Fold this sequence. Notes:
Elements: H1 18-31, H2 35-53, H3 61-72, H4 79-86
Helix pairs in contact: 1-2
Amino acid sequence: MAKTVERKDYSIAMRLPAADVAMIDRAARLRGRSRADFVRDAAVRAAEEVVMEQRLVRMSPEGFADFMEVLSRPAVPVHEIVELAKRPAPWEPCYKPKR
């Protein structure tokens, strides 16, 4: 007697305007991916973002008080980040024009 195998993959079909398909195909080619792989990865990534935005963080009253105390402390500058912020951006000239 043949065994029934549980299906692990599901098909999702949708209709898209030609311009959308062209954009997806172009992006997929730039990534070296197939259209299906590109769309699947983009959809899963978008779904994960939505789920993470809705995630509820639970903590005890004591934990919340500790959390609020840490947030209430004065900011402490991080030397490396301050120095990084002072550097010119890669698209800016590395020199300062004389006035």
